[in-house]
Design a protein that fits this description.
With 263 residues, the chain is of the alpha/beta class. It has 8 helices and 10 strands.
């Protein structure tokens, strides 16, 4: 949710870039169009969900749950849920999901799509900061493709971590700040292949794994895993690759049962 214009407006209280929110709301009607502006998110969806599922199953020792609902019993928060592309499959996996997004239109689309599918998802038009102020805690917090769109990464990660209960888990995905990511995620994806609208990303807001790990550590989390998300142009598919975080990557962390005070 990033723009490169000089008109960017930051809301310091909620750590939002209002231009970013407006950009994604303008595209909201296309959230569930697999060939529309959100096509890349549909394409990377299976690999991201594979990572999220495995991290949560392993952390919470859920290997004996139903294969169809491996996350049964978990209370999960999806931050920046958009139209519900992650919230819905997590719910089908058995989790009790709350999906939040600052965009009213995004939440409206998410609720509309959820209707009639026998899924119960608590969608809310709100921010992570506002939710944290209520004292809410979740077994797991999932925040995918959001970190690179906020003005203050450290503050945002700290807020996300504050919503994880002691002994809980966090899963994030973002884009590394490398020459390769500039070439592929911006020049290639936005200007050559036209996978994304021009201006969707701003390279200087990309986050390196070291920066993300530092932010998680400062927030009182223990980082456990970094895994790359790699595109294969020959098969037009995305897959997980542990040793390649040069562009897209995912990270998981855990909060100790007796969590130290964030630094």
């Amino acid at each position: 949710m990033t723009t490169g214009t000089a008109s960017r407006k930051n809301d310091s209280e909620t750590n939002l870039d209002s231009d970013e929110v407006e950009r994604f709301e303008r595209m909201a009607k296309e959230w569930w169009d697999a060939n529309g502006k959100f096509r890349p998110l549909h394409q990377i969806g299976p690999a991201r969900l594979h990572f999220v599922r495995d991290q949560l199953v392993n952390h919470f020792n859920l290997s004996n749950t139903s294969p169809l609902q491996p996350l049964d019993g978990l209370k999960v928060l999806d931050i920046g849920c958009g139209g519900g592309l992650i919230s819905e499959p997590l719910t089908r996996m058995g989790a009790t999901v709350t999906g939040i997004d600052p965009g009213e239109m995004n939440i409206a689309i998410a609720r509309s799509h959820c209707e009639g599918q026998d899924l119960e998802i608590d969608y809310r038009t709100t921010t992570a900061e506002a939710l944290a102020e209520t004292g809410a805690l979740y077994d797991a917090v999932v925040c995918l493709e959001v970190v690179e769109h906020v003005p203050d990464v450290n503050a945002f990660v700290a807020t996300c971590a504050s919503l994880v209960r002691p002994g809980g888990s966090i899963v994030l995905s973002t884009i590394n700040r490398t020459v390769k990511s500039y070439a592929l995620a911006i020049v290639g994806a936005e200007y050559i292949l036209r996978w994304l609208p021009k201006g969707t990303h701003q390279w200087e807001r990309f986050v390196t794994p070291d920066e993300l790990e530092t932010a998680l550590t400062k927030a009182g989390m223990r980082t456990t895993t970094f895994t790359g998300l790699v595109y294969n142009p020959l098969t037009d598919t995305w897959s997980l690759k542990a040793d390649d975080t040069s562009v897209n990557y995912l990270a998981s962390g855990t909060k100790p049962e007796s969590a130290p005070t964030p630094s």
